[in-house]
């Protein structure tokens, strides 16, 4: 998920778009006409390209990425019905956009619940306690390098890769801020590990979540990517470990305790994930239903926490400065609104271009022309430069005729390809801000060759390990 800021800001208000009983929702959008050569199609493509230039320039312009995408989505969806009306059809655009909106709402509600849980765990001090435990151990720099990478690899499948990377980078900066060479190597290692860990779980990245919700890969089938993802991290980590400077930083003396209810929130979070999987796997319903049920549990438990802390604060003769009882809606408000709105813009922009026939054209050129393996490797390389969300959504919308093994391959490459450059993933961009002036685009670029070796090795391992799936139809195996 390539959102630059951490999951921290915004206020969240959701309108339910699932009320209309439409048969097309289960079947997907209607077949698109080829309107790429029309004046409307050309304008829509130009608008999307210009909007994405602004998205890529977010850091330089200090312009939130959701803003140009929201405007682009509106303009494109003005062009779509005009183009179809010029050819005597007024029904396809409405059906297509409703299909796009339903998909967006399912993903947004899923992410809303997950973000609220992550924010609550942060507020309860869960991540601070983990960081404090690590910095007080007195590990060597090489041990910190491997431990932070290992934790990033295994935490990101549950939390998102950006939150995981920021947490591990905080540990690195706390123990070795005065060793720039180590900070650079550790940050690259964390970025690669967090992105790789997110690739073998539906919850590790928005792209994997989209693949899961589209039924291209089932929950258990994601684990076929575990070893390729591990290789993607371990190969560059092993190469870079030889450059890690020797030394043992002085252990820091700090004590942080998890606040009341933090451990219960962790348990509720895992129960929520389990319910999302159950809704999807056994009831064949959108997993966001399980996530929203879990959000309801969190709100009920939050009510208990609030009442208990309110009584304690009242016993202390008022709110004692800035202290305040727990409020679950405050954690809801801290969800990453910019990312959610950017995701809306992406889905509608790509959906609009698909309705005009552009994705069918790209699919024919890329997948039919180059073949699925080469095309899927190229998708990963493209995601190092272009946000992996529109890239993966475009692939899902194109629906190329691929085997189950090929869908696993594109899930892997889209997830880990962003590690090739520091700007290629949310984890990389977030760490450039956290270790500003030390971990930079060019410091990462010096080790891109090692990351590329891991990328190639992961693909080879997948093609070898999952060779029997390369000819298995989607849903088979």
From TrEMBL:
Transmembrane stretches, start-end? 35-56, 68-86, 139-155, 183-203, 223-246, 258-279, 341-361, 373-395, 407-427, 447-465
Recorded GO molecular functions are: antiporter activity
Pfam families the record matches: CitMHS
Keyword flag Lipid biosynthesis: no
Question: What cellular-component terms does GO give this entry?
Answer: membrane
The entry's keywords: Antiport, Ion transport, Membrane, Signal, Sodium, Sodium transport, Transmembrane, Transmembrane helix, Transport
Report which superkingdom the organism of origin falls in.
Answer: Bacteria
Q: Which residues form the signal peptide?
A: 1-25
- Annotated GO biological process: sodium ion transport
- Domain Citrate transporter-like residues, every copy: 52-415
PANTHER family linked: SODIUM/PROTON ANTIPORTER 1-RELATED, SODIUM_PROTON ANTIPORTER 1-RELATED
> Would you tell me the protein name for this molecule?
Sodium:proton antiporter
Protein source organism: Acidihalobacter aeolianus
Supply the source organism's classification: Bacteria, Pseudomonadati, Pseudomonadota, Gammaproteobacteria, Chromatiales
